[in-house]
Amino acid sequence: MQVSAENLNNDPIQIALQQAYENSLSQTGGALADYIPELARVDPERFGLALATAKGRLYTVGDVDIPFTIQSVSKAFSYCLALELVGAQEVRSRVGVEPSGDAFNAIEFDPVTRRPFNPMVNAGAITVAGVLRDVYGAQAFEKVLEKFSLAANRPLDLDESVYRSEAETGHRNRAIAHLLRASGALAEPVEDAVDLYFRLCSIRVTARDLAVMAATLANMGENPFTGTEVFDLRAVRDTLAVMFSCGMYDYSGNWICDVGIPAKSGVGGGLIGVVNRQLGLGAFSPRLDEKGNSVRGVNALQWLSNELGLHTFECTNSGSSFVEQLLA
Ligand code: DON
Questions:
Q1: Per-residue pLDDT tens digits for 190-249
Q2: The domain over range 5-311 is classified in CATH as 3.40.710.10
Q3: Which residue from 36, 72, 73, 159 has its CB within 8 A of the most atoms of ligand 1, so it is best to mutate?
Q4: I need a surface site. Which of 126, 223, 246, 298 has the fewest CB within 10 A?
Q5: Phi, psi values for residue 164, rounded to 5°
Q6: Would you list the domain boundaries of the chain?
Q7: Which residues, in sequence order, are CB contacts of 200 under 8 Å at separation 6+?
Q8: Residue 122 in contact with ligand 1 by CB distance below 6 A
């Protein structure tokens, strides 16, 4: 099923998306990630927004077909896959689900369990990469890429140059991985898990891809454009829960209050938001705030949440019914 409503001028969702875009365009604060040259030289003015509904309609505005690396947005999908492959109990024995309240690359572990706090910070995501590597062996990257591609409804690929730079400079992530090895969360060889983590961060996507991937989560794991069952329903539930509480790092509390939807950001400038059973949002704008979240992306999703009443705890529910009516 593919019903594309792309760029329909009088459609109320298209109008809302356009307004979110225009409202966010003037937000030129923040800075490009510069820890590797590839990210430091992207065009800072790029900005794209896409909304894909759980009924298979796609709305876009701006630079939605410009490729960038998925970076930490991959953490949500990798976690979902790990849950599906080995079960929640096994994953939970290796990675917690508590917000850390700290930066994504903090070198810290739960003081009682010694596990990473959650799968959305680097320590947790590297552990999840270890789980995927344990299951799939040397084919792990190809297998995971296949899944991500099914979620995006397009064959995704690796940005080789970003991957090489991540691998050459990722000493902090390697240090985290060795601590994980010491606590038993990772098996030998540690480098396999870290290498998979770097590759997963270096997958190339567009804002359009992110919206479709987010809509696949919103649609209980089924890609609404193809009808393909990509992710297990129960795994999606647990993933959205962790995205809700931990997806925006040490901005997660503010995000839950102000925007109120599960989300995940990446230092490539990508951001996804998921409105359960309704729609997925994908944003791309590479200037980041001090937490590592896209400045325009955060502004645009907050604007859309307010305008369309997408907040999970929207008191009146007028917004939700608004969206449903639009989609009827
Ligand atoms: O681990 C890293 O340094 C990156 N390749 C991924 C980090 C990331 O995207 C954090 N998100 N805001």
A1: 999 999 999 999 999 999 999 999 999 999 999 999 999 999 999 999 999 999 999 998
A2: yes
A3: 72
A4: 223
A5: -60, -45
A6: 5-311
A7: 70, 74, 78, 125, 129, 141, 144
A8: yes
